[in-house]
Write a structure and sequence with these properties.
The structure is a single chain. By secondary structure, the chain is mainly beta. It folds into 2 domains: 77 residues, Pseudouridine synthase; 99 residues, Pseudouridine synthase (2-Layer Sandwich). The chain has 3 helices and 12 strands; from the N terminus they run ββαββαββββββαββ. The strands form 2 sheets. Strands 1, 2, 3, 4, 5, 6, 9, 10, 11 and 12 form a 10-stranded mixed sheet that branches. The longest helix has 12 residues. The chain is globular. The chain starts with a strand and ends in a 5-residue tail after the last strand. 31% of the residues are buried. The model has no long low-confidence stretch (mean pLDDT 95).
Length: 207
């Protein structure tokens, strides 16, 4: 039943690799209760959610063990003390090999769950990127993404607004451009609360 890959587990935390197409946490309605955290709790009853990935996004997800560690790890995310890296394949060739995208985001309420850029009332949102490779045959770029802020759909909207939508994105690009959203959470790094131990985890994408 698990349908996820266990990367690491100890008395404080669990790190799993979430597959694309699985909810991180339960949604609204009885048909959206099957999710990664429920599946993890079937093996680790004290598992608690700390952050989430979009249903279409795959990759590393950090899970706390117990409510106290949940509070501590959640605080790290709120304070932007967790280093995150993603790999994506996007349409077109990026002009600059490295750069930063600064576009304020807010929920597009009439079209939920879509998000949109809004310079008047949007929340500040920053994404750093680095071009890893360009394939001239498919006219696609492989990029490493570092979200400085953690807005909903941030990476997807930022790349689409720059004219380089992530392949397989049904909301902000062309769903049929790939069999799935080509976005994967590939690295997580943080200092374990209450210690000086730095934890670093990696998961290569399947694409």
């Amino acid at each position: 039943m698990s349908n996820f890959v266990l990367i690491y587990a100890d008395e404080h935390l669990i790190v799993v690799n979430k597959p694309s197409g699985m909810l991180s946490v339960p949604g609204r309605g009885p048909d959206k209760q099957d999710c990664l955290i429920h599946r993890v709790q079937a093996e680790f009853p004290d598992a608690r959610s700390v952050h989430r990935l979009d249903m279409s996004t795959s990759g590393l997800l950090l899970i706390a063990r117990g409510p106290e560690m949940q509070r501590e790890l959640s605080r790290l995310f709120e304070q932007r003390k967790v280093s995150k890296r993603y790999i994506a394949v996007v349409a077109g060739q990026l002009e600059a090999a490295v750069g930063e995208i600064n576009l304020p985001l807010i929920c597009d309420w009439p079209n939920r769950p879509r998000q949109k850029v809004d310079f008047a009332i949007g929340k500040p949102s920053q994404t750093r990127y680095r071009l890893l490779a360009f394939d001239p045959r498919s006219a696609c770029s492989r990029v490493e993404l570092e979200p400085i802020t953690g807005r909903s759909h941030q990476l997807r909207v930022h790349l689409a607004e720059c004219g380089h939508p992530i392949l397989g994105d049904e909301l902000y690009g062309v769903e049929t451009s790939a069999p799935r959203l080509l976005l994967h959470a590939t690295q997580l790094g943080f200092t374990l609360p209450g210690s000086d131990q730095f934890r670093h985890f990696e998961s290569p994408p399947e694409f």
